[in-house]
Design goal:
With about 250 residues, the chain is α/β, with parallel strands linked by helices. The protein has eight helices and seven strands; from the N terminus they run βαβαβαβαβαβαααβ. The chain has two domains: about 200 residues, Rossmann fold, CATH 3.40.50.720; about 30 residues, no CATH class. Helices cover about 45% and strands about 15% of the residues. Strands 3-2-1-4-5-6-7 form a seven-stranded parallel sheet, with helices on both faces. Helix 1 crosses helix 8, helix 3 packs parallel to helix 4 and helix 4 runs parallel beside helix 5. The radius of gyration is 17 Å and the shape is globular. It binds nicotinamide-adenine-dinucleotide. Nicotinamide-adenine-dinucleotide binds next to helix 1 and helix 6. This is SDR family oxidoreductase. It comes from Meridianimarinicoccus marinus.
């Protein structure tokens, strides 16, 4: 599937799934606007053919509006930024709840609202444009221990995805959600390191994956490209599980 002629904005490209997805889309010929809150992490992408880096904090509403006004109409929007709060509902303060909602859900509301008008214009010409929101298997799909704020906000991402898909299904803009299993990324490594017993924590993360291993970011990118590309032109409003069989 070629992405030649397509412009795609991606969030959280500094590391993990976002970084791998920006490299994969650019390798297929896309013009990728790779954004992140961390300039140093973005700098490591600089010079890659097809990638332009832009500093963007997805919780900064004004910055999102300004970027949308400046960029050309998009063919694709990949909302990847997210945050994992660890704890049961007894551990979720109002501030934790607000922060998880802000970064995991409100950010996507804002980017979709800001970039959708341009995507609708683009779809009038090309026939299709695609939004892909990163949710999780920990969401409305399945409950996990110590993931109250995370699971609830990722469930909201799936609801948001379906609502957008329903509203724009006749206008050429599709909207889907990616629901990864446990992916070996720097933030997962951080969660393992922060555990009381990191060795056991790693074993526990692997044990919940029936395939007996963590996903790599390269296990995610083929599905990311599929859902952002024309090969999925008849797919919208879906929460696609790439979870190594956790939710069989
Ligand atoms: P990560 O957490 O390792 O990296 C996240 C990136 O987001 C970093 O480059 C960071 O600088 C950036 N970031 C943080 N706050 C930001 C902000 N306010 N604005 C813009 N960028 C910001 O990445 P990951 O583990 O690949 O996770 C990416 C997405 O995948 C998240 O939505 C996460 O919830 C989801 N997810 C991850 C896993 C997993 O096991 N890693 C599983 C399911 C879902």
């Amino acid at each position: 599937m070629t992405f030649a002629g397509k412009t795609i904005l991606m969030t959280a490209c500094g590391q993990g799934i976002g970084r791998a997805s920006s490299l994969a889309a650019a390798a297929q010929g896309a013009r990728v606007i790779a954004t992140d809150i961390n300039q140093a992490a973005l700098d490591s992408l600089a010079g890659t053919e097809g990638i332009e880096t832009r500093l963007l904090d997805v919780t900064d509403a004004a910055a999102i509006t300004a970027l949308a006004a400046e960029l050309p109409d998009l063919d694709g929007l990949f909302n990847c930024a997210g945050f994992v709060h660890h704890g049961t509902i007894l551990d979720v303060s109002d501030e934790d709840w607000a922060f998880s909602n802000e970064i995991n859900v409100t950010s996507m509301v804002r980017t979709c609202r800001a970039f959708l008008p341009g995507m609708l214009r683009r779809a009038e010409t090309t026939g299709t444009a695609a939004i892909l929101n990163v949710a999780s298997m920990a969401s409305s799909v399945k409950g996990f221990p110590n993931r109250t704020a995370y699971g609830a906000t990722k469930a909201a991402v799936i609801g948001l995805t379906k609502a957008i898909a329903a509203d724009f299904v006749t206008k050429g803009v599709r909207c889907n959600a990616l629901c990864p299993g446990t992916v070996d990324t720097p933030s997962l490594r951080g969660r393992i390191a922060a555990a009381a017993n990191p060795e056991q924590a790693e074993k526990d993360f692997i044990a919940r994956q029936p395939m007996g291993r963590l996903a790599t970011v390269d296990d995610m990118t083929p599905t990311v490209l599929h859902l952002l590309g024309d090969g999925s032109r008849f797919v919208t409003g879906q929460a696609i599980l790439v979870d190594g069989g956790v939710t069989i």
